[in-house]
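Our consortium's second objective concerns turning raw sequence data into structural hypotheses that experimental partners can test. To show how far this objective has progressed, the report includes one record in full. It was chosen at random from the queue rather than selected for favorable results. The single chain below, 789 residues long, was entered without modification.
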Amino acid sequence: MKKTDRYVEFTANHMNCRLIPVTEEIIRCIFSRKDICQDAESLIIEKKEYDLVSFEAEERSDSIIIKTSAVQANVDLKTGAITWKRPDGTLWLQETGKDLSEIDVIRYTTGGEKPVINRVKTVDGERNFILNLKEQVDRKAYRARLFFQWKEDEDIHGLGQAEEGIYNYRGHNQYLYQHNMRIPMPILTSTEGYGILVDCCSLMTYNDDGKHSYLFLDTVNQLDYYFLGGGTMDGVIHDYRFLTGKAQMLPKWAYGYVQSKEQYYSARELADIVKHYREINVPLDCVVQDWNSWDPGNWGEKLLDKSRYGDLKERMQEIHDMHAHSMVSVWPNMNSGGKNHQEFLDAGYLLYDYATYDAFNEKAREMYWKQAKEELFDGGFDSWWCDSTEPFSGPDWNGEVKREPWERYALVGGEHKKYLDPAKANAFALMHAKGIYENQRKDCEEKRVLNLTRSGYASGQKYAAMLWSGDTCATWENFKIQIVEGLNMGMSGYPYWTLDIGAFFTVKEKWQNRGCGCNTDSTPKWFWQGDYEEGVNDKGYCELYTRWLQMGTFLPMFRSHGTDTPREIWNFGKKGTMFYDAVEKSINLRYHLMPYIYSLAADVHFGDATMMRSLVFDFPQDKEARKIENEFLFGRSLLICAVTEPMYYDRESRELNRDTKWNCYLPKGCGWYDYWTNTRYEGGQYITVDAPIDRIPVFVREGSVLPTVEGIQYASQKPENPMKMTVYPGADGEFTLYEDEGNNYGFEQGAYATTVFRWDDHNQKLTVDPRQGSYPGMEELCYTVEIIK
């Protein structure tokens, strides 16, 4: 054994091993059959100097023991397996072994020959397939497996977002590869209060088949992972962000209502949508331009069709004058023949599909930004929708029958490995987001970066990348699955996740009603599986959309989007009708809670918090709460109980005769107030509450101090009346209100203010600490106080 002040190095099971205490509760583990490379390049771990950690190391005949104040690692020298223990010696995690097998890393090129291209038009974009790629051996690397033995009552979460709706991964297998509706993350988190973060950007699989539990890594130069001993789910997430980077502050307007659909067709139409919302007095902060803003045939160009967007600057100014913002869809792939594509081709910055730019090349990222800035950013668009960032999902995005999971993994994952280094096959979207973030910040510090992207990877939170779940279909079952996927994304350490409210696809059989320019294609599609052939003309869909929107009110981004049928509020009826009024009520609720929401956003950045919180975060000892998949906490104060079944209408507007009540579980250990009635309930029980179409069950945790405002039409609007601080008694509590300018980076230099409100339940007294800090334009803080009786 060799011990330095930074690490311990030894040999186990014919592997060179190094354990490096990074903090008191984080230990890095590197295993290799070659020399250890501690300074190996990482796309997901931040490079920074760590403080020295005090630790002990003891060598025994059959083991090495490393201890910090928070974690103990016992390494079996025969197998290389590590037994992880808490400081008191109790078991945390038992590894059962490691497996490293050398492989040839294959790269693909055309060998200098002219590419033979098969271009296919799909609903997911136009794709190139190169038919004459040649294999060549690039280097040697490893396939690796890390084996685990879980405790009987331990739940395993994380792994990012898949599409099957698996909440607890015990007893399940999962494939981790980039695809439409799949956003893998290389992290496991446990209800025991620890996590495993693997420094790996290759394809992966998770296996828990009853015989073995392991994580398989397709291509690595060494097995390199981190044990995160945070003790709680919040602690584990803090460890993850310490290693991968703090989540960036998004612009305040990003937390308002975002109106999108497939698609708007002109700059004039974008401005008219905002104008209509202002005229009907329904709040709105952003309108979104989907694909096809380019000249016909120039797929993926970042140059606009002047016949439809020649007045872009004027219309963007009109939108800004109405205190709203905009977002534009951009793609990583481009058809040949366009100016943007030719520039990449001439510079040698295209991957070997001869369509997708090489996001791993810094100069290529700079060129991509230069093109995006030229007409889109300089023309007035405020933010980015980086679509199709997998970006090689084409082989699977076709056909009538959905392929088997293993087949899809091999097919789509294999396509990524054709065009990307296999060791980086999961990281394209991450590097794409890095280019958008870093280059926009070089050019403009007055607008915070916002990148809504369909794929991503660990550490993308530091690049202001908001993930969304992909092109889902409109069914109640899929709605339930979406909640589960969002919860696991939060337990993967990634705080920015959203979805298409109402789902992307709404029809199935009636192909004539398909959007995306596919209403002349009668062939069945496995992904076009919506239950509502007539969209908003089906009251069954209107009910599903309304319930989806109510849940979406409590996501990090509140965004309506989809194809086949329009999504603006006026398509769901007129004011005074059930669906219109319910949608309007939810949008107004989002703005009513804006001081709370923006303060949560600050806590995500400054405090490594999570907004959409599985009940595991706050109630890990409540075994019933650990099972709940359709409820979540929004921040630490609000419990959201999504209604995931129809009550009024089935498909084709068939009326249902059901009670409009919903069964909710209230976690034990505290009391809960019904947000709508202020009725108080004890935790640790199921209750049944009214859930009419205009009401999603929401409960407020006792001890909460909840800030709200009235009557605002956009996130940064100053309300006419003072903010209200509502106290829900029953326990001590506090809330930190955060304020800043809202859309620049002044906060990084300390230009923000915080005010702490403290509730003393014994004395029934609210104490307000002096406001700390300041920012340009800051006004006197005015508020009223209401204590719920």
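The partners drew two points from this record. The longest helix spans residues 362-377. The mean pLDDT is 97. Both points have been shared with the crystallography group to help prioritize constructs.
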